[in-house]
Specification:
heterotrimer, A mainly alpha (about 700), B mainly alpha (about 100), C mainly alpha (about 500), A: two-stranded antiparallel ribbon, C: 2 strands, globular
Chain lengths: ~700, ~100, ~500
């Protein structure tokens, strides 16, 4: 099959799976996950095929796979849509296919497939466990299967469709369609356990917050289309078109047309990738099932936001002002979220803030023009962050097992202070989590995170972006610190609770994805080792830089090697890890934790601030101003006057005009009129065939006469 | 020689009579006959025009129409017989169970 | 008659021969499933042959028959609609105890008539094709004998059909009188020669009578009143086949004749067609609101859709938009065919023989209220029905939207803005009764009894999928329709 054809078909299997499950196999759990995993596997297979073929193409950047079709005729020309896989697309496709496939498999185990139905599980709430009696007559509480198991896989399928659509798109319109489908799925999946009020609120918060970004993005797309008449990447990124865009001037902030469009599109990313100041939804989104957190809120959807900026880089980079904004927001978010992560006790929330921080890294990298480094970090991060989330899900799962065993439901299985010593109970989870954590911290040489983070720092250093360099270095230190804190609290030392003592390793469907992702969390870094790195440089060619860099018209220069950023990144990674271990090896409870500073614990009071700044005023305006003042006082006042007058008029009309004229001639309003005429005309239909002919003929004659007098 | 107009007027009269018959008569058989009258009005017009143009095509057309008319009658009579078996009546006014 | 003449109508010939053979073979076949299969095979073969002819442009039989993009487009559409007509009928006939082999032969004959209509380049052939496709349909409408409603439908259809044929033939006679020829190209030549004189009036009257006759056939208001009764009484698969095939064939003839032969009558006839289209859209949609029976509702809906297609005709005399008009009308026909077959299949799935009633009584399960609770009982079927209702209304993400979009655009480009406005307003009205079905299916409690038959399920499932998928990828179909919009001679 032609590669382009395969690309066209990539998004379809998950969509088909969605429909099949919703329409037909909803009741059959095994069939549902079979279809979903099969579909994900099919797309994965196709993606790998495309990726391998892409590797085989000489100068792939210039000969990307692209296929367009005429979609809608717009007057003389056609609006075209199509698919395109260029080096950047191929690299992204690679990690998207892997993570999605792994997470599909993981979900089978996570939702306790094969376990009995719960005693009193209800739809919309997480399963509570089931009681089984074994051969000796002992009663055990075991995990119970998710009540809405099939529905979960259907949503995952729809989500995967959105992500694949976004990646293979060659234009902003279908990219945006995929983007919005993912937004919808994110909403549905965060609120998957809609029985919990917190999940409902989180879903709404996520949807509303990202929507703010999307509106701006749509504005940007509309502006772009009106300025250029096209939304296809390859047509926008031509020299003349970019020049034309850069030469438009706009009234806003003195930005050029390109800058303004870039900024608007970037705001879409700020919402989608949870950058400050629209970051508030992502931590709350942890209410969703863990595979959702891993897939949507670590590996794919939030990455899609960064991907969109990378995609639009040639446009955004035209205006230095926009680039400064991007760099500032990225660097600030990276540091700011890292500080919050330090003080969180919920295992998933630490990772959520870590994700925000790491996405900030990529955005900052883009803001300083480090195109390849941003893409590189995007991919390595997707692997190790998906790994960490799945690992945390595995931990929670193991802890829940302990909770079911002891029956003490007051123990929060997500609180790290309730854990400890899990390395012995859950060895596979421990080792893979350790790999993921080290990758996130940038543990030197072995892990992928080191190479990608180092490249960003090197780029910032080489181009003299000191503020960004220092901010990111501090953030990197904090990252290593909170990661080690997490690992120490969770896995090292001795179990701090009875539940942790009874935690259990999870089934293979959950550990297999962990192992696969751990593999990539280590090895993916080796494809991007800088050429002049001491000892290792040049052993393996810097394939990633060559490959992804060729996406741009001008091949970006790799940053010249310097020892300082390397030393910095070694120092912050190892230092952070060491201090993290040192501080937390003996901490037993939150009270002993010195870093439970209120401002960090409360996430810099952003939720409260937004509540105070936006939510409360909105309520106040709605209640006091709009309702009491505007509605009741002003408008009602006017209305009362008008009403009295119209009442008077109305009476007059009613008595002297309506009753005799309107009521008898026309009826009550248009709706009734239509219905009445429907009914009226219906009675003409007497069922007598000759009557029909007569009516037709009479009307024909009337028409003929009218025609004769009016027209001839 | 009789002018063309005469034929045409006669044909129009036949057509109108046929149409009125279809509209007014209640017996299905009579309605059929009226339809035949309308078809034959057309036939007359064809023949008259063919003569005026001195062309055969119009006269040939008449044969087609007659064949079709025969086929129509066959189907129509079959329908009437089928209905007569159930209702013992071929008054088209009685056939108004489908309405509204 | 030369071999090349025969070759140019090969699909049609194959189908006719096949239908005759089937009629004979059926006598020895005990299992009617075999007959159905053979009939389907014949139609598939025909469709394949017609597809192979795509792109050919020729005339045959001394210019009486044309093979061009228009003909080959419709010659694929008709056998396919016949195939669906068999798919929805097979289980139904069994269930209703009217399984007789003639159904399939008659359907094949009628399909052949429709295909001949698509080829017609001469008014004589138009008339012959009209009778060829109608006569089997009269019989099919009465096929559920001795059920009285079916027989009544058959007789009504027959009487109206014969009446309309008389108008058509008289119209043709007058056109012949005015121009001295019945071939479409000859008529154009005669008009262009400008030697008509007083015969010009004769021509206009002839064309008007022709329009009246076909107005009956395509159920344009005010010649529409037979439609609900006949659609209601006829066995539902026949109704589906009539609603799609017969209507499409009627429009094929109208398109062919008006666009190729009568552009000169533009000034005289455009206002007439304008009024016809507007009235048809309005009356069809408004009366549909008051219906409680789903078959009657869909019948009025089919009238309304005839109105939309008529809109495309208003611009038949404008050379700039002519090709677009034909293309968008054909595109809309396909849209309507697909959606309406699906909707009828859903109706058939709910229809059942009323055990309490006597042999003369109608089937039950045909009220709109009988769809209550379908969303729970048969989620897939209800979802498909929702797709069809959305498509008939013209809402995304369905093919109906795309079809309406092209149609309205053509109408506006032709300068008929007000007609387009009426079209949009009436489709808003139509949302009321289409969406009511959706509301009933999902929001009302009920326990509808439905039938599961593989071919029936196949029909609605495929129609629903195609309706959605084609709405995203309409370009191939539109390109093909555009190619068919340029008529061969």
């Amino acid at each position: 099959m032609a590669t382009e054809t395969i690309i066209w078909f990539l998004p379809l299997p998950p969509l088909l799976a969605f429909f099949l499950i919703v329409l037909f196999t909803n009741k059959n759990k095994a069939l549902s996950h079979g279809i979903a995993v099969g579909a994900a596997g099919l797309s994965w297979l196709g993606s790998m095929l495309v990726f391998v073929r892409a590797l085989g193409v000489e100068e792939f950047g210039k000969h990307a796979f692209e296929s367009v079709i005429n979609w809608l005729p717009t007057g003389e020309t056609w609006f075209q849509i199509g698919v395109r896989i260029d080096p950047l697309g191929a690299a992204v496709l690679f990690f998207v296919a892997w993570t999605i496939f792994m997470i599909f498999i993981y979900s089978i185990g996570y939702h306790n497939f094969g376990q009995p139905e719960g005693d009193h599980d209800r739809k919309g709430l997480p399963p509570h466990g089931a009681t089984v009696t074994d051969a000796h007559g002992h009663k055990h509480t075991v995990p119970s299967v998710e009540p809405m198991y099939s529905r979960f896989f259907a949503f995952l399928g729809l989500f995967a469709f959105g992500m694949y659509t976004l990646v293979v798109s060659n234009n902003l319109l279908t990219l945006f369609v995929g983007w919005e489908i993912m937004g919808l799925c994110s909403y549905l999946l965060i609120g998957f356990w809609y029985g919990k009020p917190s999940a409902r609120n989180a879903a709404i918060k996520a949807f509303m917050t990202t929507r703010i970004g999307d509106v701006f993005m749509l504005l940007g797309i509309a502006f772009l289309y009106s300025a250029t008449g096209t939304l296809t990447f390859s047509e926008i990124f031509t020299e003349e078109m970019l020049h034309h865009l850069a030469s438009i001037s706009t009234p806003i902030l003195g930005l050029s047309g390109a800058g303004l469009i870039g900024l608007l599109l970037f705001i879409g990313t700020v919402g989608k990738s949870a950058q400050w100041p629209l970051h508030v939804w992502l931590p709350d989104a942890m209410e969703g099932p863990t595979p959702v957190s891993a897939m949507i809120h670590a590996a794919t959807m939030v990455s899609a936001g960064v991907y969109a900026v990378i995609r639009m880089f040639p446009l955004i980079s035209l205006d230095p002002a926009t680039m400064s904004i991007v760099a500032f927001i990225g660097a600030f978010t990276a540091l700011f979220a890292a500080t919050i992560a330090v003080a969180q006790n919920d295992i998933k929330r630490v990772l959520a803030y870590s994700t925000i921080s790491q996405l900030g890294y990529m955005i900052a990298a883009l803001g300083i023009g480090a195109y390849v480094a941003a893409a590189f970090h995007l991919i390595t991060h997707a692997f190790f962050k998906a790994l960490l989330f799945l690992g945390s899900g595995s931990v929670i799962h193991g802890m829940e097992h302990g909770v079911l065993h002891t029956g003490n439901h007051h123990v929060d299985p997500q609180d790290m202070f309730n854990m400890g010593g899990l390395r012995k109970k859950m060895p596979i989870t421990f080792w893979t989590f350790l790999i993921g954590g080290f990758a996130l911290s940038g543990f030197p040489v072995i892990t992928a995170g080191f190479w990608s983070k180092d490249e960003i720092l090197a780029d910032a250093f080489a181009h003299g972006h000191w503020a960004v360099f220092i901010t990111l270095a501090v953030a990197a230190f904090l990252t290593a610190f909170y990661t080690m804190r997490q690992i120490t609290l969770t896995f090292l030392g001795e179990p701090r609770t009875e539940e942790a003592r009874h935690a259990q390793e999870t089934p293979w469907t959950m550990t297999l994805p962990l192992v696969v992702l751990a593999f990539f969390a280590v090895t993916y870094g080796w494809v991007g080792i800088p050429e002049h790195f001491p000892l290792l440089g040049g052993l393996v060619p810097n394939w990633f830089h060559e490959f992804v860099g060729s996406t741009l018209a001008e091949h970006p220069e790799a940053a010249p090697f310097s020892i300082w950023p390397l030393l910095t990144s070694l120092a912050v990674a190892l230092g952070g890890l060491f201090f993290g271990w040192l501080v937390y090896r003996n901490v037993k409870s939150p009270a002993e934790d010195k870093l439970q500073i209120p401002v960090l614990k409360n996430k810099w009071y952003f939720d409260e601030a937004y509540d105070f700044l936006f939510v409360k005023p909105a309520y106040w305006i709605a209640e006091k101003f709009t309702y009491l003042f505007m509605d009741r006082a002003v408008i009602d006042g006017i209305l009362h006057v008008v009403a009295r007058f119209s009442l008077f008029l109305g009476h007059a009309f009613r008595n002297y005009f309506d009753k005799p004229v309107v009521n008898e001639l026309i009826g009550d309003g248009t709706g009734n009129l239509v219905k009445a005429s429907g009914r009226g005309l219906r009675f003409i239909q007497t069922g007598r065939v000759q009557y029909y002919m007569v009516v037709s003929m009479v009307l024909l004659v009337i028409f003929a006469v009218l025609y004769y007098f009016l027209i001839v | 020689m009789i002018p063309l107009t005469y034929y045409l007027v006669l044909s129009a009269i036949l057509f109108t009579m046929g149409a009125l018959g279809v509209l007014i008569r209640r017996n299905a058989l009579v309605i059929f006959m009226s339809v035949e009258l309308m078809l034959n009005a057309a036939n007359l017009a064809f023949v008259a025009f063919a003569r005026q143009y001195n062309a055969f095509s119009g006269q040939l057309f008449v044969f087609f129409v007659m064949t079709v008319a025969a086929a129509e009658v066959a189907v129509g009579l079959a329908l009437i017989v089928a209905i007569f078996r159930v209702k013992h009546n071929i008054d088209v006014d009685q056939m108004s169970s489908l309405k509204g | 008659m030369t071999p090349s003449d025969l070759l140019s109508i090969l699909p049609l010939l194959v189908l006719v021969v096949w239908a005759c053979a089937l009629l004979l073979v059926d006598l020895w076949l005990k299992r009617k499933g075999v007959t159905a299969f053979l009939a389907a095979l014949g139609l598939a073969l025909t469709a394949g042959l017609a597809l192979a002819q795509a792109g050919e442009e020729t005339t045959a039989f001394g210019g009486m028959v044309a093979l061009d993009g228009f003909a080959s487009f419709l010659n694929v559409l008709f056998p396919l609609s016949g195939l669906l007509g068999i798919a929805v009928a097979y289980g139904y006939l069994k269930r209703m105890n009217i399984e007789r082999g003639e159904y399939y032969s008659l359907l094949l004959f009628s399909t052949a008539g429709m295909m001949l209509m698509a080829h017609a380049a001469d008014l004589v052939v138009v008339f012959l094709a009209l009778e060829f496709l109608s006569l089997p349909l009269y019989v099919l409408a009465a096929f559920a004998r001795p059920r009285l409603d079916s027989e009544e439908a058959g007789l009504k259809y027959f009487l109206l059909g014969a009446f309309a044929s008389a108008f058509v033939i008289y119209g043709i006679a007058l056109i012949y009188g005015a121009t001295g020829t019945t071939s479409l190209s000859g008529i154009v030549a005669a008009i262009e020669a400008g030697s008509l004189g007083t015969s010009g009036l004769l021509l206009t009257i002839g064309a008007a009578l022709f329009l009246v006759g076909f107005g009956f056939k395509v159920a344009a208001v005010p010649f529409h009143m037979w439609t609900p009764d006949v659609y209601h009484g006829a066995p539902t698969p026949v109704t589906a086949f009539m609603a799609v095939g017969a209507k499409a064939a009627g429009f094929a003839a109208l398109l062919r004749v008006f666009v190729t032969a009568f552009p000169a009558l533009d000034a005289d006839l455009t206002p007439v067609v304008w009024v016809l289209a507007a009235l048809t859209m309005f009356v069809g949609n408004v009366v549909a609101i008051a219906q409680t029976n789903i078959k009657r509702m869909l019948a009025y809906s089919s009238i309304a859709h005839a109105g939309y297609i008529l809109m495309a005709f208003v611009a038949f005399g404008n050379p700039a938009t002519r090709a677009d008009a034909v293309a968008s009308a054909l595109f809309y026909l396909v849209t309507y065919a697909l959606t309406s077959y699906g909707a009828w299949a859903a109706v058939i799935a709910l229809e059942k023989q009323d055990p309490s009633a006597g042999s003369g009584q109608a089937a039950s399960g045909l009220e709109i209220n009988d769809f209550a609770g379908l969303g729970r009982r048969r989620p897939a079927l209800a979802a498909a029905m929702t797709v069809f209702m959305l498509s008939l209304t013209g809402m995304p993400p369905t093919l109906g939207l795309v079809g309406k979009f092209y149609l309205f655009r053509t109408v506006i480009e032709a300068g008929q803005v007000w007609l387009a406005v009426i079209g949009v307003l009436t489709s808003l009205i139509s949302a009321y009764y289409y969406l009511r079905v959706v509301v009933v299916m999902y929001m009302r409690e009920g326990a509808p009894e439905t039938t599961r038959e593989p071919w029936l399920d196949f029909t609605w499932a495929v129609s629903a999928l195609a309706t959605v998928i084609l709405s995203f990828l309409p370009m191939a179909l539109f390109a093909w329709a555009s190619a068919a919009g340029v008529m061969g001679f």
